[in-house]
Amino acid sequence: MMRARARDLWAGLGWMTFGAAIAAHATSMPIPRHLGATTITGPGLLPFMLGTGLALLGAILVLRSVRGQAVPGPDDEADPATVSNRRSFAALVLMFGYAAAFALRQPFVLCTVIFIWAFVILFNWREAWGAARLRLVAGALVLALAVGFSVEFVFENLFYVRLP
């Protein structure tokens, strides 16, 4: 449990620093007032909110660690010789593939749907059997379509950011 507390303390301090740096940088972003933007609608608002959120969550992690309420992670109980990195490698391959698709100028919605669909299936396949696998494939597709089209709508119609 002592390892978990120390790990949470350092991770929390890291997240607080990272979040504060993002929030500080966001406040220095130029506001295109000639386009009618204000401080509340400028490009730095979302990064500021995200940075502040990361810093606050880091502070909660530090507070839990100091109080002795750290949550033990899976590596605290597992034998390091039996831990496999296959799932981490699979996630890394999927993420690199997703990024490579954008580098090759592929459409955002299509790439996002394929990425989310594959990710959900890959990491839930072993737990599903028989008809549950069919529901998994269908549910993953519904989730992927909803996320792909929702994200595109939000970025293009609310943030006015063109996606590939």
SSE succession: HHHHHH
- Secondary-structure-based class equals mainly alpha
Sheet having the most strands: none
Poorly predicted runs are: none
The quaternary organization reads as single chain
Ends distance: 46 Å
Please tally the β strands and state the result: 0
The radius of gyration is 20 Å
Residues in β-strands, percent: under 5%
Shape: flat
Total number of distinct structural domains: 2
Which whole number gives the mean pLDDT? 86
Fraction of residues in H or I helices: over 70%
Q: How many distinct helices?
A: 6
Protein name: DUF1468 domain-containing protein
InterPro entries: DUF1468
Keywords: Membrane, Transmembrane, Transmembrane helix
Domain DUF1468: 10-164
Structural summary, described in words:
- By secondary structure, the chain is mainly alpha-helical.
- The chain has two domains: 2-77; 84-158, no CATH class.
- The protein has helices at 2-27, 45-67, 74-77, 86-103, 108-124, 131-158.
- Helix 1 runs antiparallel to helix 2, helix 4 (86-103) runs antiparallel to helix 5 (108-124) and helix 5 (108-124) packs antiparallel against helix 6 (131-158).
- The radius of gyration is 20 Å and the shape is flat.
- The chain starts with a helix and ends in a 6-residue tail after the last helix.
- 11% of the residues are buried.
